[in-house]
Amino acid sequence: MTAASHRIDTDTLRRGACPSLAAPMQTGDGLLVRLRPVAPALTADDLLALASLARETGNGLIEITARGNIQLRGLTGASVPRLAQGLAAVGIVPQTGVAIETPALSGIDPSEIADATPMADALRAAIAAAGLTLAPKLAIVVDGGGVLSLADMVADIRLDAVVANEGTVWRLAVGGDRETARSATLLAADAVIDGTMAVIAALAAAGPATRGRDLDLPTLSASLPEGETGQETLSWSKSGPRHPIGKHNIGGHPVLGVAPAYGQMHADRLAALIQSLSACGATEFRLAPHRTLLVRGLSEDGLVAAQGAAEREGFWCTDQAPGRSVSICAGAAGCASASFDTHAAADAVAAHAAGLLDGSVDVHVSGCPKGCAHPARAAVTLCGTAGGVGLVMSGKASDPVLATVPAEGFVPAIQRLGALLSNRRAESETAKTLLDRTAPDTIVSAYQGHP
Q1: What's the pLDDT at 6?
Q2: Coarse DSSP helix, strand, coil percentages of the chain, rounded to the nearest 5 percent
Q3: Inter-residue contact 309 to 301 (CB < 8 Å)
């Protein structure tokens, strides 16, 4: 494999496309490469090799993204080809083409309705064969259900396995997560590929910027292969979804979900974690959404030891981890577009407004209005602006801010907001309920320090 075979397309060193080995993204600390290995399971040697490559070709920073991808930071135009060569040498093959996501435990979770992997593989092959031009960030979810289903993952196209009177069918929907996506039709397994490819063709025909949310659903549904009648009694998987961080029992076998704080770690820290977990009996690792690494092969005693080892290495590994409901981007330290230190801001939220972090709402800390770390709406978004750190309630980072404080005044603002929520909170009340009953003007006044 030569460097020429991995020549970088410099026209794609920009925002608006998913960064890859062929098209890295320029950020504040160099080039960023995102990859998802074709293999659903990684070995300890795979991850140790990845850590070594991150040190050798970048600045050593590794991220697990909200969608369960790996990102390597601080690369250069000269080092990206070396990364590609190193990955090939150790047998880590990145997926290419349209992103098609399945639950991390597809095919091994006995509580799932259907194994999503064969359907996803068939769809990936059909899309590749069609050769259509699609939006660079187009995302497809094929969700067979199970304990760690992808019910909360937003996608342009969703295929969700559903239990019907006559067996399993697949709901084809567009533009959302399992609850918010607009249903197009129900399809038997043998009709799923044709039905989904009709949606893919509609997206391509509408232009390369078209996303699932942009489709005319009534017109689209009329053009789809005839599906199920829609009169059946339908149900989703009853065992999920759960947040992947923490301890799980999958078919009688322990699984531990661990996550680097806010999704980012240094290669040295990852290597130390993997060596410690291997000593506890871990044999397999799987990337999962919510910036999580799933650890398999542990005994019950090994699970306890592994959890202790992960905590000592600074990783989150319980479902009570204070920052697990916070999404943050690299911030000013890693991105030229960001205007403040998102890691420090997230730490301030955890320290002074921990009541927001009970898991009932999402909190998004974004260095700029692009909102890369959490494109969907969040209950609370703290966004970098020209004037400081803006506050958005029940919206996206790109939405108009309700209030702004200077970056140097952010910690006092969060202290005031935390005190307000603590004083107003009823016993056993969730953050969601508290925010729902608190007037936005009251929150804005506390944030800005107005009496």
Answers
A1: 35
A2: 35, 25, 40
A3: no
